[in-house]
Structures are given as structure tokens and as C-alpha cells.
Amino acid sequence: MIRFVILFSAFITFAYSEDCDVRNFPDGTVCVCSANYCDTVPSLDVSIGKYQVYSTSKSKLGFSSKTGLFSTQDPAQNVDNVKVDRSIKHQTIIGFGGAFTDSTGINIQSLPTEAQDKLMESYFGKSGIEYNLGRVPIGGTDFSTRAYSYDDFPLDTTLMKFALQPEDLNYKIPFIRKANILTNNKLNLFASAWTAPPWMKTNNDWHGIGFLQTKYYQLWADYMIKFLEVYDKSGISFWGLTTQNEPIDGFLPKALEKLSSMGWTPAQMALYVSSVGSCGLEPASLANEKNV
């Protein structure tokens, strides 16, 4: 939650964020988000010749603001100069955001309703930092209180028993809906899976060294489509879909890693994407989704 700019200035003034309930920790000081207060970002004052910077550091409270005037003279001597050619474009920044994990929902839900509203506003609202991206796990993660998928019934190759879990209904969907409202439905969501159900994997386990069995490549794509379709019925559509969360974790033995995971080599990933990515993830009902 840091926004910063490095500029030369001739004059700087300081204006700090509103009074807050200060809480000190070994690594710094924070403002407690409550029913009465949550960090917001004051409106910018960037008239010609001025700049404004918001920053957070160990020594200052969140969203400390400083303004100043651009200098017409650069006092620095014998320094390297950086020239930017604005006609050459590189990567586009789509936005900034966070993840709607189980632990996110559990922690937000533990707050009073008024504090929940202020917290969501501080992240997604006009008076906050206006997140416009959200990552949604497909099933359980290391931020869950248990390991789970949407079809924990071995050999259910038709996915007839596929179903969302209480975590989706209680911790993910409600807060995604709130974020959508605060962003006027401009929130771009993308989904990521930590692992397939164990029965689809070579090691038949949530973690440890394990890979998706080749015979289940299309079924795994169907599983993802099911997830997107069920969420779509809940009024939540997705902008993108990733093939896997941290595939390297699937190469770690259980003794070293307890994270729900599934491994992919580059060759395996290429085979999977080429075999199902071009057609297996493009049903008519999900025409707007993008594979990331």
C-alpha cells in the first residue's frame, strides 16, 4: 500500500493523514481500521507546477502526504541523466489489487459491520486506493483452514458432484460482490488453482511431489470451466484465468512443504495449454474470459 514518486523539488510542505487509533509494532506504526476510522487517500492537488506524494514508512503513519513545487534548476552535479522517450511504449499496467482468499474473508468477517464497510471502502472505494484487480483461488490454498477442492469424490470423471464450498459462500463471494459495487463493476477478477483434487494427481495427495495425470488434462479444464460457470451464476464474472499457482511448489517433498500444490514442468504446461487452452476453455457462456 505504498505510492511513491522520486522528484527534485524546491519547496516541500507536509500534511499527515487524519487522526487515527495508533498501534505500535516492532516493524512500525499503523492506524487501526475500525468502525470510526480507516485509512483513506485525500484528493490530489496537482495544479500546474506542483506535485503530491503519498507514502508509508516505518517512521511515519500510513498515507503521509507531502506536496511541493517542481524545481526549475537541478542542483545535482556530475550525475547520470535518464531520458525517457514517450513515443516508445512497453508493458501496460492493468492495475493493482489483492486476493480474495479464505483468510481475507475470515479476517474481514471478524470485524463489526461498520468496520468491514470502511475497510472495503479504503481498498476499493473512491476515497481509498481504488484496487481494480482481484485474484480468486479455485478451491483451497495455504490461506485456508483446511485442504479442499470442489470435487473430492475419487473418479468422478463427469464432475457430477462438483460444488462450491462454504468458504466460497461465506468468505469469498460476499466480499467480491461488495468490491464490485465499490468499483462500479470495474473490478477485473482472475482465478488461480493451487491444486487439482488429489485423485487427479500422480501422488494422490494435496501436497508433496505430484503432477496432474495426463489422462485428466481435459477433465481439469472442464473443472475450471465449472468453477467459472458456477461463479457466473452468482453474478460474478472473470477477466482472466491462470494455469497454476506457483507450479514449482509441486516439486517439493512433503517434509519440506505443506502447501497445497501441483507441479508442472515447462513441457507439461506447454502440452496442457496446447491441448486444451485453445478450445477446451472457450465455451460460449465464457466468451469474455481471458487466459493469462
Order of strands across the main sheet: 6-7-8-9-10
Q: Regions with pLDDT < 50 over 5+ consecutive residues?
A: 1-17
Please state the CA-atom Rg, rounded to the nearest Å.
Answer: 23 Å
Instruction: Let me know the CATH homologous superfamily of the largest domain.
Output: Glycosidases
- Provide the number of structural domains: 2
Cα(first) to Cα(last) distance is 24 Å
InterPro entries: GH, Glyco_hydro_30, Glyco_hydro_30_TIM-barrel
Signal peptide: 1-17
Enzyme class: hydrolase
Catalytic activity: a beta-D-glucosyl-(1<->1')-N-acylsphing-4-enine + H2O = an N-acylsphing-4-enine + D-glucose
Task: Explain briefly what this protein structure is.
The chain is an alpha/beta fold. It has five helices and ten strands; from the N terminus they run ββββββααβαβαβαβ. It has two domains: 9-70, no CATH class; 97-291, Glycosidases (TIM Barrel, Alpha-Beta Barrel), CATH 3.20.20.
Question: Any overview of this molecule?
Answer:
The chain is an alpha/beta fold and 292 residues long. It has helices at 102-109, 113-124, 166-182, 217-233, 266-277; strands at 9-15, 22-25, 28-31, 50-55, 64-70, 97-99, 133-138, 188-193, 240-241, 290-291. Mean pLDDT is 86; it is low at 1-17.
Key traits:
single chain; 292 residues; alpha/beta; TIM Barrel; 2 domains; 5-stranded parallel beta sheet; 3-stranded antiparallel beta sheet; 10 strands; 16% strand; globular; disordered N terminus; Glyco_hydro_30
List the helices and strands and how they pair.
Layout: E1 9-15, E2 22-25, E3 28-31, E4 50-55, E5 64-70, E6 97-99, H1 102-109, H2 113-124, E7 133-138, H3 166-182, E8 188-193, H4 217-233, E9 240-241, H5 266-277, E10 290-291
Parallel strand pairs: 6-7, 7-8, 8-9, 9-10
Antiparallel strand pairs: 1-5, 2-3, 4-5
Helix pairs in contact: 1-3
